[in-house]
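Intended use. Records like the one below are meant for learning the mapping from a protein sequence to its folded structure. Do not use them to infer anything beyond what is encoded.
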Amino acid sequence: MNPGYRRQMAERTVPLFSIGAVARMLELPAATIRTWETRYDFVVPQRSGGGQRLYSRDQVDQLRFVKDEVNAGRRPGEAHRLLAERVNRGDSFGGTRLRVLVAESRMGASTVLAELLGTDAFEVLLASDSATAGRAFDELAPAVVVIDAEDRDFEELAERIRAAGVKVLPIELLERPLALLDKARPVARS
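Structure written out for the chain above:
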């Protein structure tokens, strides 16, 4: 684990992100986030001197939890109730999970990797181009980045990430284990 990761974990409650940034990260309309704040009064951001909403990393993760629950079929009120229960128990919303960014344009290995690592111990972020991967790296501070080293589009980003002290792994390291998994899958017979 890189040394900056521990520091970033301690800074999870610092208000950093505007509502516009949170809306882009979560792919939610800002109006939905404001409505949830008003209606459920649970994820309430701090305000800047000018009155702008500022969300912490923990609050972004909490909103991501609510979004995921709604996408899974729950009503927003139910999702917020579950969120409150988790917060009251002291559960984590990404704070103790290792965040892994997978950047590859083919999106084959990354999808399988997301399934393999998508457990309570890992949060897997997928990016299919260098611009998206760069934003995810800057905004979400992953501890490990897996990059398609054969794709020239990611070369500059890989160097920038290495310079920041974050471990960069080539996706080629995963190809053999993933090929073994493909061989182990049952063959559909017609």
